Amino acid sequence: MAALLIIPLLISGYIVLTKHPYHFYRLHRYDGQLLYMKAAVHGFFCLMIAVFLAIVLKWAFNSYHPVTALDRVTSFTKEQSSNRMYSWMIVLSLTSVAIGYLWGLIAKSIYLLKFIKKALSGSYPSDFKTLTTYLRLSILEPLFSELPINKIFFDSMVRKKHILISLKCGKVYVGMINKISEPNESDGPNQEISIVPVMSGYREKDTKRVTFTNDYSNLSGIDSSIRIPCGEISHTSWFEQDVHNKIDNNAAAANADTLCEVSDN
Known about the structure:
Helix content: 55-70%
Number of helices: 9
């Protein structure tokens, strides 16, 4: 009879995993038996909370209890003890499922309160449409911070800073990230990105020196964003034009000046 609790236990655990923002955005990491175990663990917590609430309710209202009320109106078997046991199973199952939903709702409320606190401090823009996007990003921030390449894409999008992206084919883009693919039940985050380029070019085959050939800064009213699968990206870094001009091929130039001085002497 106790096996009847397994299904609602897994259901309540699955509800927690899908409704809780932190766990939902990490579902892609779990598969097969590991996913069942994660659901079972969280479902067990929901069931224990339901048992605790039932005990407290029984202690506070000894004359009335949902199990007693359900036992009076149902007749599962001819034995009173079996009817009462089935009533307990039903009450605990429904309560654990409700706790799973409540758990996810409380988690979302906590994330919302944290975001409102940051928004009031001026960490995010005041535009309402933009705030809805930043609310989602604030939930994803811990996940994107786990890998350096995801972190730099996330910071470029939030802080509106330029980055340089080098592709495996040798193409190079400089711009700001305007969209990052979100994780779901089966895929991890950052499967592809969208960048609004200000410059593009290529890396020379032998020297790997960056040569810029296209300037997008004068475009207006045109959506020039480019979607790039992250599997095609070889590496990325922050980009500032002044810094690039200072260090671009400066070692070769310094060596050339040194050789000239030696030859003059």
